[in-house]
Amino acid sequence: MDDKTRNRVLLVLFVGVLMGALDIAIVGPALPTLRDYFGVDDRAAAWIFSIYVLFNLVSTPLMAKLSDSFGRRTIYVMDVAIFAAGSLVVSFAPTFAFVLIGRALQGLGAGGIFPVASAVIGDTFPPEKRGRALGLIGAVFGLAFIIGPILGGVLLMAGWRWLFLINLPVAAAVIVMALRVLPTARRSERLRFDWLGMLTLGVALASLAFGLNRIDTQAFGTSITTVQVWPFLLLALILLAAFYFIEHRAVDPIVRPHLLGNGQLRLANVMSAGAGLGESALVFIPALAIAAFGMSSSTSSFMLMPVVLAMAVGSPLAGRYLDKVGSKSVITVGTTVLAVGMLLLSRSAASLPLFILSGALIGLGLSALLGAPMRYIVLNEAPAEDRGSAQGVLTVFTGVGQLISGALIGAAAASAGGGVVGYSSAHLIIALVSVVLIGLSFGLKGRAAEQATVQANMAQVDAGGN
């Protein structure tokens, strides 16, 4: 394959991933509008985000495996088509139930777009060009959070349905280009997929999210004993325990159990879940801005810009200081800044400048958790042959955090009666979680120990080469 063809392939992958990524960033400003249009409360509205994340989590390993068996082009086109079908369902949804069905379809399709795109790059690009191509595709998510609030604000002026209708012509163009340029090669043998593990994990996460979403944070002790909460939380615990044993026996497990045996990897995964909680809280910032300052939905979307700009500055800074002071220092500072930002956000309803400042602090804090530092720990601690799987596990934990965050924020906001008090209470909970992350960060390896691990890994590579 020549460079010109590879560039066409990269363009198809880039646009497809951007389309899926935008639907996470763009939906935040629309949540209050959708809530009011369908007459649901904040608890139910949170599922517009949570159900997308849940099906995205389920889809990612499934679609990656299916692309090995049926070919990258077939599954990539199918994923884009499923995403477009979900967009169509949401656009013309007559009831709130149809919105959730459409969002589930969108999550199912989007969950496969990124891993299949990464696999295509591995298949078609020479080793010396894969890093640049993967970096470009990975940068799409940052670009989506920059474009998303602006695009969301503009489209909301025309009506919330346009947020989803805009996906249809883009999806059609991606499908046409994909059928022309993506490779059709596939493996001759069909690979076994851990269906039992995936089903168990999916039901466990759905039960956990539903149980958390039904909690009344104003009467926690009483609500947790109701039939809407405790049976679902208990089922989630039982299924997560079952998932652990299933993965030990699976031929090709979704989560390799031995990767959870390393203390540093466990910490990184748990902190990535915490980062997912913080990241998902961004989706609900426009709702707080609407309640606090009386903004329109389209204007409130621009209140995410301080977060986005701070992340654009903070991410490269975090990467630069990794080599100077080590991941522990970067992550500890980042979690502290995140906690301060979330605390200020929960108290900023009377001051727009404070609201903007808190968003900037949140963006800087998240830069240390969502970007290079966590990936750096995984690369250092995971065995060389399992580094790809370890990165995948990290992504799963981030998604779990996003799912839990959506459920918790919806529960907290609804329990406090919605509005300023509701969303301020919800962000205060995320601030408390961030304080826990600060404590966990002290368990990470210091600079000297981290460097010793890096040197040991390099020695193993050299020994293997000889």
Characterization of the model:
By secondary structure, the protein is mostly helical. It contains 22 helices and no strands. The longest helix is centred in the first third of the chain and has 32 residues, at 127-158. It is globular. It starts with a helix and ends with a helix.
Secondary-structure element pattern, one letter each: HHHHHHHHHHHHHHHHHHHHHH
Distance between the termini: 33 Å
Strand content: under 5%
CATH architecture of the largest domain: Up-down Bundle
CATH superfamily of the largest domain: MFS general substrate transporter like domains
Overall pLDDT score = 83
Give the biggest sheet.
Answer: none
- The residue fraction in helices comes out at over 70%
Number of DSSP-assigned strands: 0
User: How many structural domains does the protein architecture include?
Assistant: 3
Tell me which oligomeric state these chains represent.
single chain
Category from helices, strands and their pairing: mainly alpha
Tally of helical segments: 22
Unreliable sequence segments: none
Question: Any idea what the shape is?
Answer: globular
Rg, rounded, reads 22 Å
- What is the name of the CATH class of the largest domain? Mainly Alpha
- Provide the CATH topology of the largest domain: Growth Hormone, Chain: A
Give a short overview.
This protein is mainly alpha-helical and 466 residues long. The protein contains 22 helices and no strands. Helix 13 runs antiparallel to helix 21.
